[in-house]
Amino acid sequence: MAGFEQLLPLRQPSALAEPESAKNIYTLSEGTIGEISAVITAAVVEVIRSSEERIDRQMLDRIDYAPTSAWQWVHELLGCCNR
After folding, report:
1. CA distances in angstroms from 20 to 25, 65, 69, listed in the order given
2. Measured between alpha carbons, how far is 15 from 13 in angstroms, rounded to an integer?
3. Which sequence spans correspond to the domains of the chain?
4. In this structure, what DSSP letter does residue 67 have?
5. How far apart are CA 2 and CA 15, in angstroms?
6. Which pLDDT band holds residue 25 (cuts at 50, 70, 90)?
7. How many CB atoms lie within 10 A of CB 70?
């Protein structure tokens, strides 16, 4: 998480490696690196839109993010990606 934070274009530290923030990101992302990156990206977009300068718990609660697994039922319903 600290590595991601070093790359963020934000003026204030977000403390992504703090246990509570890391747990929230892990839960949203289901622990996969691609999903972690997507969660953080969604949060950064929201931060920029809102003119805030850091990612915090409230920001993570506000982002509209669903992990890839949440869309599995759509794939099953449409019959795609089942090989």
Report:
1. 9, 18, 23
2. 6
3. 2-78
4. -
5. 8
6. very high
7. 10
